[in-house]
Amino acid sequence: MCEQLSSTEKDLLLKIAREALEIGVDGGLLEPINLNKLPISLQEEGVTFVTLTSGGNLRGCIGALEATRPLAVDVQHHAVAAALSDYRFPPVSQDELGEIIIEISYLTSPIPLLYEDPSDLVNKLRPGVDGVVIRDGMRRATFLPQVWDKIPDTESFLNMLCQKMGSKPELWKQKRIEVFTYQVEKFSE
User: Fold this and answer.
1) Is residue 188 a part of any domain in this protein?
2) Is residue 161 part of a domain?
């Protein structure tokens, strides 16, 4: 993520996500995006998470941490995946589409967070600002900065992130794990 997106670019990405969501839920195949008709910023590689909510509750969230495709294509694919492939939820049905709200999080590249010990880690994380990735060997997990709204206590945040990774909650206190932080620009319908 280099620069903040304009309101026009955000609206275009939300439109792409909504169209992809409706086509995917309907069982259709996504048409390739004609990138030449989009602003340059949406043609460049970018990375996102697409979050779906219904009635204020999470209904699906899928994304990536590394940019591998044009930003517009990344949003298109993650919108469908959030609706149909989030293992925590059944696929979104046609009847639910009118209730689904789309939120897009446009990520910066994760950077390593250097820390001395568990208390230093707690002190260096910025609740509400930092998205956090933890890694232990081949396992990793992330929470977007928005998760701080639901888990504002840093120790609880790290415990739940370790659980999400499939580890004991207090693994981060028991051994050194790799920690990365990133920020997001989020916008929604």
Assistant:
1) no
2) yes
- Low-confidence residues in the chain, pLDDT < 50: 1
For the chain, the residue count is 189
Is the CB of residue 41 less than 8 Å from the CB of residue 1?
no
Sheet with 100-107: list strands edge to edge. Answer: 57-63, 48-54, 100-107, 184-188
| Number of structural domains the chain divides into | 2
DSSP for 38-90, please give it: S-HHHHSB--EEEEEEETTEEEEEEE-SS--SBHHHHHHHHHHHHHH--TTSP
Neighbour tally for 129: CB within 10 Å:
11
Cβ–Cβ < 8 Å for 64, 130: no
Q: Does 103 lie in the same domain as 17?
A: yes
What CATH number is associated with residue 65? 3.30.700.20
pTM check: above 0.90: no
Using one digit for the tens of pLDDT, what is the confidence trace for 8-39? 999 999 999 999 999 999 999 999 999 999 99
The CATH number of the domain where 124 resides is what? 3.30.1490.150
Task: Judge whether 51 lies within some domain.
Answer: yes
How far is 146 from 149, CA to CA, in rounded Å? 6
